[in-house]
């Protein structure tokens, strides 16, 4: 009788836990998998102890290590993301390990209160460049955040996940790229948008699937679209059109994209509106004239003929793109064949350096904005990207982690356990977009704050002023090579020109005497 009583108490207790899990909204995993989800959190808590004897170290998991995921999670929850007892990276033996060199003196000594989180409302980290300014676009503007949410389509991600990203971007003063899947109601929650046009022209195509400029104009006027990005390729599957499996196509997605139900949605691998750099630039100018918006391109990097030709065509300054988003081959939230994921397109640093060099040789680096994408939502990677010449960063998988992703790597199966990358109604219900939007905003603000901390350590006002001489790549503890030398940069490459340097410094350090001579690393021209 006593045993039955204990069993009854246990069952009642578990039932109580299940009810609480199903009704709470803070944790999507518990809401979707009541009771058993607690095992995951219990294992996470004792993970460091277990890993001393079994499984993996903090830095072995891929694509994001346990340390990296923990940093994103802690940042998104506004928890303590500091570490103690020194680095657990094997700096004595690791190759290609980046080190940012701090500076002893600087022309100004700003308060570090903002950088250390004591004045969140004062934290501002705008772009050093005006998007669309050099080409005189009607709606040119200075982005208020150097870190923004990368292109992830509604369809690939769930509606609540898209809503969380958009609301979070609005809270953080960042922009949200729609991805090529069209502009849905989930994108209309207050965040500024970059509308992406892919090869299938979702959201701006006619009944035959052809690009329709009038529909594009109507669409961007109906939402807070600040810029247009033309996707040529992406890191996950460069040169291969996107694929949305039939299982993930709902009636809502079907209506937004203009595609049938029950059939895999395969986008073309190339654009039908242009077939050369010359015709692409004509089309870009046509879109920019009709909308008044800055227009740029996104691409992974393979052969360089395209980039050489683009820089040559833009040298006359009569036509051109307003920004270039370089996507690394190691990045990508979309599902792709293994060979594409592993072996097609250059990784970010190599690809970006080659693209930047083409525009630097043509003297155009101050004339357009460079945006980096591909695992750059971690402070160390972001700083190397800025040192190579990036002006802004787009984050995708890190943003997914911030809104609940646990790196289960089931994005392509429609069985994402936290409701981020699935259209399964049961799994989607676990993700509360209002709560998760705050997590994203916290993460974006924390990343910007860390970038500001390191900028101040280097004696400059903005991460865009950290140049290729401020970073070394270590070969274990034997030697270090300047980033400039590693990637073959000439003097001045990776740096802003004098006018842009002075402008962003005066924005970030308004109290500074602008007649004071700037550090040598901030005065080189590109």
From TrEMBL:
Gene3D superfamilies: Aldolase class I. GO terms for biological process: glutamate biosynthetic process. CDD domains: GltS_FMN. SUPFAM superfamilies: FMN-linked oxidoreductases. Residues 144-459 form the Glutamate synthase domain. GO terms for molecular function: glutamate synthase activity. It comes from the Bacteria. PANTHER family: ARCHAEAL-TYPE GLUTAMATE SYNTHASE [NADPH]. Belongs to the glutamate synthase family. This is Glutamate synthase. It comes from Knoellia aerolata DSM 18566.
């Amino acid at each position: 009788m006593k045993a039955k009583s204990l069993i009854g108490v246990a069952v009642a207790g578990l039932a109580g836990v299940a009810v609480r899990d199903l009704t709470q909204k803070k944790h999507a995993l518990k809401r979707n998998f009541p009771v058993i989800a607690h095992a995951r959190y219990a294992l996470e808590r004792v993970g460091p102890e277990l890993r001393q004897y079994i499984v993996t170290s903090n830095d072995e998991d891929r694509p994001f290590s346990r340390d990296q995921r923990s940093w994103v999670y802690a940042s998104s929850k506004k928890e303590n993301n500091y570490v103690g007892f020194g680095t657990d990276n094997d700096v004595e033996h690791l190759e290609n390990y980046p080190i940012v060199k701090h500076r002893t003196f600087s022309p100004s000594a700003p308060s570090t209160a903002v950088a250390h989180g004591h004045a969140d409302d004062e934290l501002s980290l705008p772009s050093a460049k005006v998007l669309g300014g050099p080409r005189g676009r009607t709606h040119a503007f200075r982005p208020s955040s150097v870190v923004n949410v990368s292109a992830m389509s509604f369809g690939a991600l769930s509606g609540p996940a898209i809503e969380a990203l958009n609301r979070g971007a609005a809270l953080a003063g960042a922009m949200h790229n729609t991805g090529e899947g069209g502009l849905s109601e989930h994108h209309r929650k207050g965040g500024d948008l970059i509308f992406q046009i892919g090869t299938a022209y979702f959201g701006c195509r006619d009944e035959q699937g052809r690009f329709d400029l009038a529909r594009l104009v109507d669409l961007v006027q109906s939402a807070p679209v600040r810029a247009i990005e033309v996707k040529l390729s992406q890191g996950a599957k460069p040169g291969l059109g996107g694929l949305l499996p039939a299982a993930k196509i709902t009636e809502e997605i079907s209506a937004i994209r203009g595609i049938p139900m029950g059939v895999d949605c395969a986008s073309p691998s190339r654009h039908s509106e242009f077939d050369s750099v010359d015709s692409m630039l004509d089309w870009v100018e046509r879109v920019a004239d009709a909308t008044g918006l800055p227009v740029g391109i996104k691409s992974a990097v393979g052969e360089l003929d395209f980039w050489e030709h683009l820089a040559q065509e833009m040298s006359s300054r009569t036509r051109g793109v307003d920004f270039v988003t370089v996507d690394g081959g190691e990045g990508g939230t979309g599902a792709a064949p293994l060979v594409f994921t592993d072996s097609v397109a250059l990784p970010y640093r190599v690809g970006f350096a080659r693209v930047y060099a083409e525009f630097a040789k043509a003297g155009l680096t101050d004339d357009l904005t460079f945006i980096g994408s591909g695992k750059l939502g971690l402070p160390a990677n972001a700083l190397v990207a800025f040192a190579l010449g990036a002006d802004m960063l787009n984050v995708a998988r890190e943003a997914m982690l911030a809104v609940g992703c646990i790196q289960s790597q089931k994005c392509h199966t429609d069985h994402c356990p936290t409701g981020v990358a699935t259209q399964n109604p049961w799994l989607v219900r676990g993700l509360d977009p209002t709560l998760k939007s705050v997590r994203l905003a916290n993460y974006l603000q924390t990343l910007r704050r860390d970038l500001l901390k390191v900028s101040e350590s280097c004696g400059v006002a903005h991460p865009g002023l950290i140049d290729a001489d401020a970073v070394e790549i270590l070969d274990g503890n034997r030697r270090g090579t300047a980033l400039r030398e590693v990637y073959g940069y000439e003097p001045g490459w990776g740096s802003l020109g004098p006018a842009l340097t002075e402008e962003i410094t005066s924005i970030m350090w308004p109290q500074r005497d602008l007649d004071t001579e700037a550090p040598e690393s901030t005065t080189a021209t590109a």
